[in-house]
């Protein structure tokens, strides 16, 4: 398994650790001009959970993949937090903003994998 795919799997584990909902992996590898190889999109019920999900992703990626994000945005309001790992972009939303931006549908030609929720 390549390093980027391992990072994606680690990010998903970090999201699942804090009970993220509706996790989606968008595989952009086959699209020319894509801004990254993968996008991982998920949601938390409240800004507090969105923040906790971001912290968990950061911790898992650092400990298991020895990766830190190049940048992070949105932490102050925690309604949307974006984390840029270079080859992987992570988007964590509250449900209303996720529905509004509808990111996974912007890349209609990409392969989309839905990860079942953990209850």
Number of helical elements: 4
Q: What does the radius of gyration come to?
A: 13 Å
- Sheet with the most strands? 6 strands, mixed
Topology as H/E string? HEEHEEEHHE
**Distance N to C terminus:** 28 Å
State the low-pLDDT regions, or none. none
- Judging from the principal axes of the Cα atoms, what is the shape? globular
Count the beta strands: 6
Q: Which class of secondary structure composition applies to the elements?
A: alpha+beta
- Which range does the strand content fall in? 25-35%
Strand order of the largest sheet: 3-4-5-2-1-6
Mean pLDDT equals: 95
Share of residues in helices: 25-40%
Summarize the structure in words.
The protein has helices at residues 3-17, 47-65, 95-101, 103-106, and strands at residues 21-27, 38-43, 71-73, 80-84, 88-93, 111-115. The chain has 119 residues and is an alpha+beta fold. Helix 1 (3-17) crosses helix 2 (47-65). The chain is globular and about 35 Å long. The model has no long low-confidence stretch (mean pLDDT 95).
Question: Key features?
Answer:
119 residues; alpha+beta; 38% helix
List the topology elements.
Layout: H1 3-17, E1 21-27, E2 38-43, H2 47-65, E3 71-73, E4 80-84, E5 88-93, H3 95-101, H4 103-106, E6 111-115
Parallel strand pairs: 2-5
Antiparallel strand pairs: 1-2, 1-6, 3-4, 4-5
Helix pairs in contact: 1-2
């Amino acid at each position: 398994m390549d390093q980027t795919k391992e990072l994606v799997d680690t990010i998903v584990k970090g999201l699942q650790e804090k009970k993220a909902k509706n996790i989606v992996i968008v595989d952009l590898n086959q699209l020319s001009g894509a801004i990254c190889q993968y996008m991982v999109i998920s949601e938390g019920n409240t800004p507090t959970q969105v923040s906790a999900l971001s912290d968990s992703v950061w911790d898992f990626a650092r400990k298991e993949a020895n990766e830190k994000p190049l940048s992070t945005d949105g932490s102050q309001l925690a309604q949307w937090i974006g984390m840029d790992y270079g080859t992987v972009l992570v988007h964590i939303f509250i449900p209303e903003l996720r529905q509004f931006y509808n990111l996974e549908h912007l890349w209609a030609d990409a392969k989309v994998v839905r990860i079942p929720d953990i209850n």
